[in-house]
# Entry
Amino acid sequence: MNDTHDVSDRNPLEQPELARKAAVTTVRASAMGLVPREEAMASQDLASLRRVLARIGEAGIGTAVVKEAAVTYEADRLVALLDEVDEALAQSPVPAREWPELERVLDPPLLARLLGISASSLRRYGSGARHTPDDVAARLHFLALVVGDLAGSYNEVGIRRWFERPRSLLGGEPPAKWLEGDWDPDDEGPARVRALAAALLSSPAT
# Structure
């Protein structure tokens, strides 16, 4: 096997594309509350990546892909598998995990405003006292994905400020302005917000 692609005895950071994909997957899973912060912040190697994937699989997300990744050493194949895991994460709201993590990162007042719900509803949904409605769960998951995209460039204070600062690519308005009321993640406004956050993964000057 070509040793430029064999990562069986290497740190994935030596394979730039695999290292980037591993970081994106780890940060996204952490923003969704699937991976403890201390694990997400740990130095990245093949063993730590597989621990992250195992936690994702334990949540019932991408289980078949995670199983294959656990026994795969070829870098190009791992990159492809991480693409599949990321897509599975994007399509899999987990409100029970996302509530505590987003309340911690965004703070309850900002989170309630971005979700278009009252503070009392946030407390009931977040505590599990009431089932999270599907539309709220979809918005919560959208915010988890945005926070995951932002986490590679900003600390938690910076993430909160990002939602409030005017952005030229949003017509001079802050992202929070595009996330008001009973919005749907597939609406044009939220889609533009998500694209703006996702652009940070390739360019820090957004």
About this structure: The chain has two domains: 12-90, 95-201. The first helix runs from residue 16 to 31.
